[in-house]
Structures are given as C-alpha cells and as structure tokens.
Amino acid sequence: MSRKKVKLQWISNDAARRATFKKRRKGMIKKAAELSTLCGVNACLIVYGDGEQQPEIWPSAHDAAIVLSRLKRLPEMEQIKQMMNQEGFMRQRHAKLQEQVRKQERENGELETMLLLRHGLAGRSMHGVASRSQLANLAWLIERKMCEMRRRIESLRRSSVMPPPEAVKKEVAPASPALEAKEKKAPEAATEELQPQEWLLPFFEHGNGAWLDACFLKN
Amino acid sequence: MSRKKVKLQWISNDAARRATFKKRRKGMIKKAAELSTLCGVNACLIVYGDGEQQPEIWPSAHDAAIVLSRLKRLPEMEQIKQMMNQEGFMRQRHAKLQEQVRKQERENGELETMLLLRHGLAGRSMHGVASRSQLANLAWLIERKMCEMRRRIESLRRSSVMPPPEAVKKEVAPASPALEAKEKKAPEAATEELQPQEWLLPFFEHGNGAWLDACFLKN
DNA sequence: CCGCCTATTATTAGGAC
DNA sequence: AGTCCTAATAATAGGCG
Description:
The structure is a homodimer.
Chain A: H1 14-39, E1 43-48, E2 55-58, H2 61-73, H3 75-120, H4 132-159, H5 177-192, H6 196-205, H7 209-216
Antiparallel strand pairs in A: 1-2
Helix pairs in contact in A: 3-4, 3-5, 4-6
Chain A binds a DNA duplex through helix 1.
C-alpha cells in the first residue's frame, strides 16, 4: 500500500504485524461505519485481536447481539431449508440412481448366478439335500461374484454426474418430514440388503434345491 | 473517493445507493480477508443487504457461527463487562442528563401546578377536607399537565446529542459491579417515579389542604 | 507503544456503454 | 442492472522521533 506493495500473507515480524493490525482494524471499522451510514444497512463486525481474549465489536456488543440474534433466529427454519434445497435435489436424484442400480443389480445377479451355476456345478445334482461343503463353496463363489459386482456398482455411483450446487434452485419443496426421512434412509438400506452371506445361506440350510432349480436353472 | 468527495450520509438515490453498496461491501470483505490473512486473526463480518432477508456472511455462515459461539460462550461474565466498557461512558453521560432532566422536571412541575391551581381553583377554599370530586378533578388536571410535561421531557431526551461511538474510548474503567448496576438502574427508575396518580392521590385522601396551600399557594 | 509524515498503493464515484 | 474505465480520494507501509 505504501512504500512497498505488501504480500498477502501472514506477517511474521511481530511488531510490524501488530502495527498493521491496529491500523487495518481501525480502517475496517471506519469502512463498516461508512457503509452502514451511506447505504443504511444493518451490519456487525467482530474482530478478535492478535491474542486478545476480547474481540473488538462494531457497532457495539449490544447491536451486534441484535444482528446476531436475527441471524440465529432463522437457523433451523431457513438454513436447514437451504441445506435441504441444496441436498434434497441431489438426494432425490441419488435415490433414483440407487433404484436403477438395484434393478440392474438384480438382473446381473440372476444372470451371473445362473452362469456360475452352469459352469461351476455342471452335471452335479442339486436335487435333494446337497452336502454342506459343496453348498458352502457355492455360497463363497456367489459371494465373491457379488462383491465384484458391488464394487462395480459403487464405481458407477461415484462416477455418476452430480448436479452442481449453483444449478439447484428452490424448485424442490420438501413434501413431509416422514417422506424425507424415508428417502434419506433408502440409500443406506440398499447397501445393507446386499450382504450375500446373510440372505443366501439360509437357503442352503434347509434343502432348497428344488427352489434353486426353479429360480436359477430354468433356462 | 473518486470524481467527487462523497458526503457521509444516506444516499437517497436508489440506484446510486445500491451500486455503492455492492462496491463497498465487496471492498469490505476483501479488507476483512486481508486483515485475517496478514495478521492471522479470527474475525467475522455480517452485512445485511438493502432489503435482503439473508445477510452476506464472511468468511462463511459456519465460521461465523464459530466466532459467534465464542462470543456467546462468555456471555454475562465478559460481555456485560465489554458492554460496560463501550457504553459505560455514554451511560454515565446519559445519567447526568437524566439528573438534569429530573431537576428541571421538578421545577417545571412546581411552576405548572402552581399556575394550574391559580387558574383552575381560584377563590375556592382548600382549607379543611375538600370534597372528593373536587380533589379528583384537580388530580386529573394535574395528571394531564404532567403527562404533557413528560412528553416534552421525552422529546428533549430524544433530541439530546449523544456522543458518537468513535469518541468513546476505553478510558472509563468499570469501578465495581454494584456501582455499575446502580448507574444502570437509575434511568429507568427516574421514569417510574413520575406517575402522578401514584403519588398525588394519597394527599387527597387524608385532608392535606394545609399542606397543599403551603406547597403550591404560597406565592 | 504512539503519533505524525509521506510516498505509494488501493478503493471507488461517476460516466459511458 | 452489470462491466469497464479513470480521475480523484482514501488507506496505509515504512520511517522518524
């Protein structure tokens, strides 16, 4: 600003920093007062001094409190709404993608399982009660395949194009808390459902060979 | 600043004010950022736009909330002290003005009451126990006059020149919490004392005619 | 640390488009 | 209203006492 153009970085020299701080804080407060006067706007400025416990408050602690209460009065009402507006659209889109992903997953799952059964268990009979070791092996193979698929699905999710925040306007009104909650919970639940060991194994415990045939081997 | 030195007052022209506001707010935020960077201090800036519901917040709503919470954390212990530091001088001055006002009020009160009694009750005897209706009427007249006076006093108070915030430095150290509290309470108490119905009527209930003569009719 | 000074940079008012 | 321009004012870094 003066004899030398100053670099915009922390002034390491202690005395110089303190001097600059005092000058500039004074200047800032003057600017704030001018802005407030010239344009008749409400504003407040809080500057913590270098190491000072008490900040300098403009225009006064009292007026600042008024401004701040006004800011705090609409925190949940507007700020959350704002957040919802920004994330709601994304969430909705995410839920839709999730739905597509699950659908595809089911299709792929059926196809892969079918192929796996065809290749891995060709000629072996699934009728009656199969041996536990054979079925455990099958479960592991299926699980492995599904893990691969889940990795691919996650990759697809990550690479899916998200709408930039600027493009998100207030068009999307939140319908009801219950609905929001349901939509919010959906993506997580989708992942939880896909633990193969959890839902596959029971079928191997009770002799579901006929059912497996009906489901996977019909083609 | 530029082609013309601007007067420090509300810009009446709408477009000019908005333009100035935009430029200066931008400048302020830049200054704030510079100050924060150069001196490594914590600060926040909140500026309500002209008519905007949502203020512009620097550095961000979140960071501002942090700064504000820090301000709120030491609420009664330090903030009151701070308020006292900034407003104490003004309060003191206000209390002095208040004292002058009360003194003048007493003088005016005596004078006006005397005139009222001279004009409204000329020739009627105030000795002995006057009729309740006559005294109630007198009380009402006195009350009305004092209401007028209080209005005038309020007007004087409002028009009294307050010292600008810039002139108030940290020269005034708070002496003790008790003393501060007393000085803070004084201005309000002064107004409360001036309810005529409260303190006038008792005199009409117990036959104070002689006292009234002594007080108001001696001239 | 504080105030004062001044060369220099930064901000901005007013206009033009 | 928004952008660019420019003259003019305002802010201030670095010295000095």
